[in-house]
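Subject: Wiskott-Aldrich syndrome protein family member structure
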Amino acid sequence: MPLVKRNIEPRHLCRGALPDGVTSELECVTNSTLAAIIKQLGSLSRHAEDIFGELFNEANSFYLRMSSLQERVDQLAVKVTQLDSTVEEVSLQDINMRKAFKSSTIQDQQVVSRTSVPNPVVEMYHRCDKPPPLNILSPYRDDKKDALKFYTDPSYFFNLWKEKMLQATEDKRKEKRRQKVRCSISTEQQRQVEDPGREVKKVRKARNRRQEWNVLAYDKEFRPDARLTPSPYHGMSSEGSLSPDTPPVCRYRMKLYTTLFWRMGVSAC
């Protein structure tokens, strides 16, 4: 539905109820029609003044922009005429050391705001009927939402735009993370292709001091690593007659007996 910016009123010239006690109805209709025509001319002149005012403001802003652009062009022309390629030699290193060009042009912001609304639209807005007082029902809602927003919500389009912008920002962030992961994987694959004999380093497992101390608290025969991890001297022991296949309790008793016999000066069989 198009929004009419300017309306010329009154629209209907001859429509209207005649007052009571009129002797000449034709003369009354003619006079009311002429009065409506005069009102239309007044409305038309007011809209024409508003149109010419908007044109003046746009032309003034365009003139200011062109003036600033002409000043920049004049400054650039002076600098260009002062340069001499045969005398001044600029190295590539000096060019790279210079700062990159950064424009100082200020972009227009808040183009669509309450201050930029045309005067006819403002007048039309003030002539509109107010929304019903549904906000008095807000205290009785369980979800604590404003009841008037179900009828009219001026911030709906802003919230919708904000959600889309946040979603687009999140998608870009995820895409950057994916590109970083892909680049790291491709770099590692390229290194493996270039140097196939390269040794792939394995990450060393983190040491757990508490677990090491708990293992050291056991005797040598009762340690978990001695029972689970096969040693190169599998089938032999420090005493010569013990083997890892012997039950731990028996081995402990035999070791105890060997120690006692050694102290008593008797050799163990």
